[in-house]
Amino acid sequence: MNIGILGAGHIGKALAQLFARAGHQVALSNSRGPETLEDTVRALGPNVRAMTSAQAAQFGELLVETIPFGKYASLEGLEVSGKVVIDTANYYPQRDGQIDLGGQSESSFMARHLPGARVVKAFNAIAAADLASQGDPGKPLEERRAIFVASDDPDAKRTVSQLIEAIGFVAVDTGTLEDSRSHQPGTAVYGKPLTGQQARQQLGTSG
Ligand SMILES: NC(=O)c1ccc[n+]([C@@H]2O[C@H](COP(=O)([O-])OP(=O)(O)OC[C@H]3O[C@@H](n4cnc5c(N)ncnc54)[C@H](OP(=O)(O)O)[C@@H]3O)[C@@H](O)[C@H]2O)c1
């Protein structure tokens, strides 16, 4: 699959490497332009290339939005309609400034700025270094680290769950984008290395 990644920081680079290793074609982008990513993509190997964010959005059948939460307005105008978009973002007021979420979950707020996109919250509750090192496709699912997935679109959630399993983690369904409050910053499961069973126990869900 062609995957476009918007954001080439800690999470963007870790996901580019994992998706490339799993055999996907990846376009990585940042805010400063592809020429600033030459060394990065060279290190990530032949399945990863650098593009502008507009080009990466067009290239990807599936997109990942992994920019600082406070920069959400810079996503406007990208061609995301109809595409599955993974939202990894977390809102930290001290980093991102005061933003009125209008009482919504962080990902419901983000989805409003990605018109027509099939938004799936995932990879928000794992540190980038753990994401880069803890996936193991050789392990049985029950021994793998859990990655929480939430979406209002069940098919999109299934697609992202399969991707999560292909890179060596296990997906734990936490419900809708509004339900994804259960793994936002400050929650009991945020940043914790849990198996699927442990995660479901902590959340009190069966997903
Ligand atoms: N770091 C973690 O361990 C971690 C874990 C889970 C979730 N998260 C969340 O994931 C998100 C990304 O975190 P991070 O730590 O990876 O961020 P980061 O290291 O600060 O990198 C952010 C990246 O976003 C790029 N960017 C900004 N605006 C953009 C735009 N309009 N189009 C394309 N790229 C754009 C930046 O490019 P320039 O450098 O060119 O400006 C940079 O490459 C945040 O919401 C964070 O809270 C982080």
Automatic annotation (TrEMBL):
The keyword NAD does not apply. Residues 3-91 form the Pyrroline-5-carboxylate reductase catalytic N-terminal domain. Pfam families: F420_oxidored. This is NADPH-dependent F420 reductase. Transmembrane segments: none annotated. The keyword Cell division does not apply. Coiled coil: none annotated. Signal peptide: none annotated. Residues 195-207 have a biased composition (Polar residues). Keywords: Oxidoreductase. Residues 177-207 are annotated as: Disordered.
